[in-house]
Design brief:
Number of strands: 0
Shape: elongated
Structural class: mainly alpha
Distance between the termini: 61 Å
Low-confidence stretches: none
Mean pLDDT: 91
Number of helices: 9
Length: 265
């Protein structure tokens, strides 16, 4: 067979290999996620592992989430106040910042910060345990590695990310208040009253729902990448990189889908 005839076959083979790899990755992800959820309801319950995961994902992320939230609220208030002041509508800055934070900015940015700090850490930890055969040792001791390692992280992320979203919103509003009211002399009464009169519970709950979904996605993707890592230290690094990239993409896609769904309710 000539080289010209072999080239299309090679391209087709490469394309099919890529498609198979994608479906294999999706199947592995779904199966591992299903197993992790099922093990949440089966004894023995690993409360010590759950609390350790909650500390790692939630408590240790407080500083970076709060720092990001403060400056996000400050820059959002600064830009909005300058833009609306030329129309004499700077009194609505508080409401605009509040709805922007609660519905979009807080859940997305908090989740991305958790991905960068905790998601990468989970993938690296599990990947290191895989390549050093610690996960195999758990299986040898008749301990389910999914129940012991993955399920607590999944539940912890689903619980803690919404709380970090609330924290992000609170510190973001504090930063926005300092900039717009104390720094740019916006009337504080109008600033607060617009929030009280126009912000509705659905705005707040949208951020909470997004936070829970994002936490679930971060944990499942990071755990899957780390759990199936191979190839030594280089493989662990590649798995960690994939976990961060895939989690960030999943967050942005899920953000659009949830926004579209909850906006129509």
């Amino acid at each position: 067979m000539s080289e010209a005839e072999n080239e299309p076959r090679g391209l087709l083979s490469g394309l099919l290999d890529g498609v198979v790899e994608v479906f294999d990755s999706i199947g592995t992800q779904v199966l591992l996620t299903f197993q992790s959820v099922v093990w949440l309801f089966r004894p023995p319950y690993r409360f010590s592992q759950l609390f350790a995961a909650m500390d790692f994902i939630g408590v240790q992320s407080i500083f970076i989430v709060a720092l990001t939230g403060v400056f996000s609220g400050m820059v959002l208030a600064l830009q909005t106040t300058h833009s609306l002041r030329q129309f004499g509508a700077e009194g609505t800055v508080g409401y605009i910042v509040a709805v922007s934070l609660t519905r979009e900015i807080s859940p997305v940015f908090a989740a991305l910060m958790v991905t960068a700090r905790a998601g990468s850490g989970m993938a690296a930890t599990l990947g290191n345990m895989r390549v050093t055969e610690q996960i195999d040792a758990l299986t040898t001791m008749a301990i389910s590695p999914v129940q012991f390692l993955l399920s607590p992280r999944l539940l912890a992320a689903t619980l803690m990310v919404p709380l970090l979203v609330v924290l992000y919103t609170c510190v973001g509003m504090a930063g926005a208040y300092l900039v717009s009211v104390k720094g740019l002399s916006v009337d504080p009464g109008i600033w607060v009253s617009n929030i009280q009169n126009r912000l509705v519970p659905s705005d707040f709950w949208m951020g909470i729902v997004k936070g829970a979904v994002f936490g679930f996605l971060i944990s499942t993707i990071a755990c899957r990448q780390g759990y199936h890592a191979s190839g030594g230290a280089r493989g662990v690094g590649e798995a960690t990189t994939r976990a961060v990239v895939q989690s960030a993409v999943a967050i942005l896609i899920a953000n659009y889908l949830i926004t579209s769904w909850m906006t129509d309710i």
